[in-house]
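> run fold Histidine kinase
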Amino acid sequence: MRRWRATGKPQRTEIYFRWSMYLTELIQPLIALNSVTSLHPRSPVLLPAAMTASIAGAVLAICTLRATLEHYVGRRGRPTGWLVANGLLLTAAVPVLLLAAPAHAYDRLPATATAIAYLVTYSLAPVFVALPLRSGILTCAAAVALIGPVGYFTGCSLPATIGVLIITALWTAFMAAAWRISAWVIKVVWELDAARESQAQLAVAEERLRFSRDLHDVMGRNLTTIALKSELAVQLARRGRPEAADQMAEVQRIAQESQREVREVVRGYRAADLRVELAGARSVLRSAQVECTAELAPDTGALPPTVQSVLGWVIREATTNVLRHSDARYCSIRLELTGGQAVLEIENDGVPTVPKPSTGSGTGLAGLRERLTALGGELTCRKPGTGRHRLTAILPLADGRTDTALEETTG
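> ok
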């Protein structure tokens, strides 16, 4: 149970569909038992032999299915060996089942048809998953059609052969389609998970690109001016002109101005405006299908810039953690100004009971604690309920604000 709770939705979906298909394979031994007891109720040798062969066939089919699913989702090559072994079992088993029922025993047709239908279905379904759609359809149709000639040469009557052929064709078509759709669902779920991860990476790349554009806009013109004036100062100095000193003074001024502008760009990049970060959090969470609501105090805009920046960073980091470490469907953000403090609470659901394995050390929360501690605040994390997580940031206000009502804004 702990391992199940620690898995993500893609893993859970795959496990559910995989084991649903695996368990259907275990029907084969039961069908074999029913068929053998119906055809040869007093045979002391045939029943154990048939059960052993049926169990071996079920295990082989499960192994083949596992390999074909891995191939379908792109984790390995086509399992040709398993498919060939499955085909050989099918080729040997169908004539034996047809020979087991006398041609004149029409009352035994249901047992024979059921046994053959299940055997052919669970042998061909992995083939339908492993091959391209058109090739899979042609292969399954050809295999089912061979039951006719095999029934004829084994002495089975024409009505019995046609009955077995129809039942097998219908059951094979139904199960092959069901397994192909199940494999497709597994593949789509993994592709959606990969797309979500790519979306997060693209958001980071876009932010970096924005910063690089801002830095280029600030420094491009100034560096060009510095280069031109430096070249002019060199030429004037070689001629002994006093204007060279003026040009170098201008270069110094431009360099100092560039330093100031770079600091402003970096400060603007690192500073987080509260309302801007809230709007960005809503947008990102909505794109990830997470419902987001916010409750902010009406005079939030009057908070000191430093306080707004720190709280904005809390929202940014919390939103990132919701997307990375949970399967949340709902997230609430609440800012309350009370008792001379700003209290920001961010709560979400979808948190696994057992934390997912971390791919890195992670310094986001540690950085937030440092920012808050520097202003006399604190950061706490706790679980108010099963599958829920609440991040609380408390920051004292210098002007000792009193209680204010909350103004709800919907996302």
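The first helix runs from residue 2 to 6.
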